[in-house]
Design brief:
The complex is a heterotrimer of chains A (311), B (303) and C (259). Chain A has one domain. Chain A is 73% helix and 3% strand. Chain A contains 13 helices and four strands. Chain A has a two-stranded antiparallel ribbon with strand order 1-4. In chain A, strands 2-3 form a two-stranded antiparallel ribbon. Chain A is globular, with a radius of gyration of 19 Å. With 259 residues, chain C is α/β, with parallel strands linked by helices. Chain C has a domain of 71 residues. Chain C is 37% helix and 24% strand. Chain C contains nine helices and ten strands. Chain C starts with a strand and ends in a 10-residue tail after the last helix. The chains are: A mainly alpha (311), B mainly alpha (303), C alpha/beta (259). Chains A and B meet through helix 5, helix 10 and helix 12 of A and helix 4, helix 9 and helix 11 of B. The complex binds adenosine-5'-triphosphate and magnesium ion (MG).
Chain lengths: 311, 303, 259
């Protein structure tokens, strides 16, 4: 694998965030942490969008990842952060590999609706599962990393660092994946599936593979979010949560793996400030932002950068 | 036995309610190819408006029976105000865009309307009740089936659903506007070329669709506590209904509503743990077996 | 000469329309076959059946002795039957270079599974550049495919079929939408590429001059049947062909026309 400029930039970003962590004010650490969790999910959304596919049910994997992490703590009494993320990867990988077989045949609004249905099935199950706290969910706490105990006072920093590492690694691999033949194939599928088949590639197989990757990314994001917030509930798979991921993906654009990470940060910033200053209109702010972006920046915020570079 | 009858009655009442909400959604999709998430907000607007209007009515000491008029008026208001504002102010600039993009536009609209409702009506639950506890829900008395008592209000829901479905079916099949509408549904470009005013048809369709969402909300308001977030809950249900039936199909919406209504009623009575699960499970199964829903159009030739 | 493609007793109808009725065609290696017929005669339907897009309701298709009737377009492409389209099927938001690199990538990813042919492209970009020059597309290399003029789109569409290393190339109206004086230029380039890679060609064509100049065999379609099959001179002179194909549809050879 040869490293290009973007790969280096991703690694540099990760290193800087990691080193700066202890020096940052705690509100900034929280905001970055949530953004990185979200950003990881949106990396997956971006991969699907490169194929011309929008999922309106990615909350499913976000939630599954979080519950996989939570159950490891609650049922198996193994509150290890790395194990939690690992469990999320396995669970979302398996579930998406199965559901992907069905979904890979769907496009456009039908893909959106079937993925929505799957996420709402999980929602319907969770809200009625008393042992998992029904609508209230339950608390999650991670106490070790790879078996090493973490002191309570360095807990927050540890969770943040883990989010940095996983988001960086995810972005790094997604970037090299997209820079390979697979990335070009995704664009080709978006443009003309018929021709892709007539060039001898299986569109279904490619979409399935990308769906599983995007689900696993959402699962990682979910597990990180669970340990970050310390609490999980079925809202994570309720449709407005999935809508939020679509929102951030649109806001970001699909031009680069930096777009989802940066977009998630912008989103978190808008949300925190809007929520702080007028808790009853923050959704309105989001809605208006989304409309403005769709009308004036169809390529998302990322297109601001590429435009400047070209001009 | 009585439980079975209860499932049937509950199911039919619930189906009627679902149909009233879903029919506007499917109409808008059929004509304009917009799967309108903001339909949920229009529904909520209908509910909140009727709380206000009925409240004014009751407080003015007018005869309680008139509160039904207020419900109707709320729906008309939502249709005639919100419908045109949204269509002229936003949607008309988006026509011709990708269907998924249009969904996202209405999602943004949904977010905006949700907060608009909070700004106007606050975040506390509201109820439609007069000073003496009158409510349109109970004013009409009750009926009994197999020893079970139901409010007559449920019959109103059924009647409205049947009347709406019947009127739309009749208008589509028998009136000139209906035929123009079918032409636009069939081929928008050709219709425009033939001199049909597509823009006007979109305008009218959206207004009617918004009004139907308003009807759904206004009729629901007396039966529940009216709270923010009610639109989010309803819109996924309506999606399930129209997707099961086939997007844009009127008979599809009816069948979808019946299926979802009966399935939910059965779940509630026999296996309450799967109430929500069952609806989306059915939605997924139908989509898997018939990817474009039960009533879906023919494929067009590609190469 | 060995028969490479063998279609036997193909039938297909769409409702009341018969698009293929008892179609029997055996194509020999290295042949250049022209398919003619008025609009709706069933030429595209024949290509669609050979490439697996449509399944015939009866009959079989063999390629190099193997039954390909039940296979999907993707699998048939991999065996070496590649096609262009009446309406070019491009990756419109991508550059011309990338359009072809997709194909190179697919061939490379399939590795040894790519039929029996030598699949490796040692230097993808160089291979594609050579091909672009061969098709006169060099100056469009970095242009977006969706913005190309029609004739160029046609060429790219054909190049996209060539890049996945066909044994048989099926072209659906390669010269439609191409100006009269450029038709021969286009066909010359295509035929040169075809000869170089020893590819068998079937092409649908409405311009009888083009048919007469490039083919060594012509199939005339009419209402889903093949009404004449033979050397170009014979078929183009056939009474039925003149009446049902050339006469009814186009002016005498020379004044080309197409729908
Ligand atoms: N997928 C399809 N669905 C319905 N009818 C079809 C389909 N494909 C072809 N037909 C019909 O079959 C008949 C033959 O069509 P075909 O496209 O094979 O004609 P063609 O010879 O290629 O004509 P043209 O010169 O116009 O391209 C036509 O009447 C056409 O309308
Ligand atoms: Mg044709």
């Amino acid at each position: 694998m040869k490293l290009d400029r973007t790969s280096f930039a991703i690694l540099a970003m990760g290193a800087i965030l990691l080193i700066a962590g202890p020096a940052l004010p705690s509100w900034m650490v929280s905001m970055l942490n949530v953004s990185l969790c979200y950003g990881t999910v949106v990396l997956g959304m971006m991969l699907l969008m490169r194929n011309g596919i929008v999922s309106f049910g990615h909350g499913l994997y976000f939630c599954l990842g979080a519950y996989a992490a939570g159950l490891l703590d609650q049922m198996l009494k193994m509150p290890d952060m790395l194990l939690m993320v690992g469990a999320a990867v396995v669970v979302t990988g398996v579930v998406s590999a199965i559901l992907g077989l069905l979904l890979a045949k769907y496009r456009d609004i039908f893909f959106a609706m079937l993925s929505l249905a799957f996420s709402m099935i999980l929602y319907g199950l969770l809200v009625k599962t008393a042992s998992l706290g029904s609508t209230d969910g339950f608390n999650v706490a991670a106490k070790t990393v790879a078996g090493f105990a973490v002191a309570p006072e360095s807990q927050r920093l540890m969770v943040y660092s883990l989010a940095v590492v996983f988001a960086t690694v995810s972005a790094f691999f997604l970037h090299s994946y997209l820079a390979s033949h697979q990335g070009r194939l995704a664009g080709a599928i978006k443009d003309n599936e018929l021709r892709v088949e007539y060039m001898g590639a299986s569109v279904m197989r490619a979409v399935h593979r990308n769906y599983v990757i995007s689900a696993v990314l959402a699962g990682i994001g979910g597990a990180l979010m669970a340990v970050n917030i310390g609490h999980i509930d079925p809202e994570m798979t309720y449709w407005p949560q999935s809508g939020e991921f679509v929102f951030v993906a649109i806001l970001s654009g699909t031009g680069s793996v930096f777009a989802p990470l940066g977009g998630a940060l912008v989103f978190e910033a808008i949300r925190s400030f809007a929520y702080e200053y007028s808790p009853n209109t923050w959704q309105m702010v989001l809605g208006i932002t989304m409309l403005l972006v769709m009308i004036f920046l169809p390529g998302g915020l990322w297109s601001l950068f590429t435009r400047k570079r070209e001009g | 036995m009585s439980q079975f009858i209860a499932v049937l009655v509950d199911g039919i009442v619930y189906s009627s309610w679902l149909f009233i909400i879903a029919v506007g959604l499917t109409l808008i999709y059929g004509v304009m190819k917009i799967l309108n998430i903001a339909h949920g907000s229009l529904y909520a607007l209908g509910a909140f408006t009727s709380v206000t209007l009925c409240g004014l009515w009751f407080n003015a000491g007018l005869p309680p029976m008139g509160s039904y008029l207020m419900l109707l008026l709320s729906a008309i208001l939502v249709g005639l105000v919100a419908g045109p504002v949204i269509e002229r102010g936003l949607l008309r600039f988006m026509y011709g865009k990708d269907e998924v993009v249009l969904v996202l536009v209405t999602y943004a609209l949904f977010l905006i309307l949700e907060d608009l409702i909070k700004l106007i009506w606050g975040v506390d639950p509201l109820f439609i009740t007069g000073p003496g506890g009158e409510s349109p829900y109970s004013l009409l008395g009750n009926f009994e089936v197999a020893g079970l008592t139901y409010p007559n209000y449920n019959l109103v829901l059924i009647a409205v659903a049947v009347a709406t479905g019947g009127a739309l079916a009749w208008a589509l099949a028998r009136t000139r506007s209906g035929k123009l509408l079918l032409a636009v549904i069939h081929d928008r470009e050709v219709s425009a070329a033939l001199g049909i005013n597509v823009g006007r048809i979109y305008f009218v369709t959206f207004t009617i669709g918004a009004m139907l969402a308003g009807v759904g909300g206004a009729l629901t308001a007396p039966t529940v506590s009216v709270v923010t977030g009610m639109g989010a809950e309803v819109i996924v249900l309506a999606f399930a209904v129209v997707v099961i039936g086939g997007l844009g199909s009127l008979p599809g919406a009816a069948l979808g509503a019946l299926i979802v209504g009966l399935v939910r009623a059965a779940a509630v009575h026999y296996l309450p743990e799967v109430e929500l699960f069952s609806i989306y499970f059915v939605m997924a199964v139908v989509l898997i077996l018939r990817p474009k829903g039960l009533f879906s159009g023919a494929e067009v030739r590609k190469i | 000469m060995a028969v490479i493609l063998d279609a036997r007793g193909l039938e297909k109808s769409f409702g009341a329309v018969t698009a293929a009725s008892n179609i029997n065609v055996a194509v020999e290696q290295d042949a250049v076959v022209g398919l003619i017929g008025s609009n709706g005669a069933g030429k595209t339907t024949f290509l669609n059946m050979v490439t697996g897009y449509l399944k015939p309701s009866a009959g079989t298709i063999h390629f190099e002795g193997r039954d390909i009737t039940p296979l999907a377009p993707r699998e048939i492409t991999r065996l070496g039957i590649c096609r262009s389209f009446q309406i070019p099927q491009l990756f419109n938001t991508m550059t011309v270079l990338d359009n072809l690199l997709v194909g190179v990538g697919i061939v490379a990813a399939a590795g040894s599974k790519w039929g029996a042919r030598n699949s490796a492209y040692d230097d993808p970009v160089k291979a594609v550049d050579t091909m672009l020059d061969q098709f006169g597309l060099g100056s469009y290399r970095n242009r977006q495919a969706g913005l190309l003029p029609e004739g160029t789109r046609k060429l790219l569409d054909i190049a996209m079929a060539m890049v996945v290393r066909p044994r048989i190339l099926l072209l659906d109206e390669p010269t439609s939408g191409v100006s009269a004086d450029e038709k021969f230029v286009l066909m010359d380039m295509v035929m040169a590429a075809v000869k170089e890679h020893k590819v068998t060609v079937l092409f649908v064509e409405h311009d009888m001059d083009v048919v007469a100049r490039y083919t060594d065999r012509v199939l005339a379609f009419y209402e889903g049947r093949i009404i004449a099959d033979g050397a170009p001179a014979t078929v183009l002179d056939d009474v039925e062909v003149r009446r049902f194909v050339i006469g009814s549809h186009a002016a005498p050879a020379g004044a080309a026309s197409h729908a």
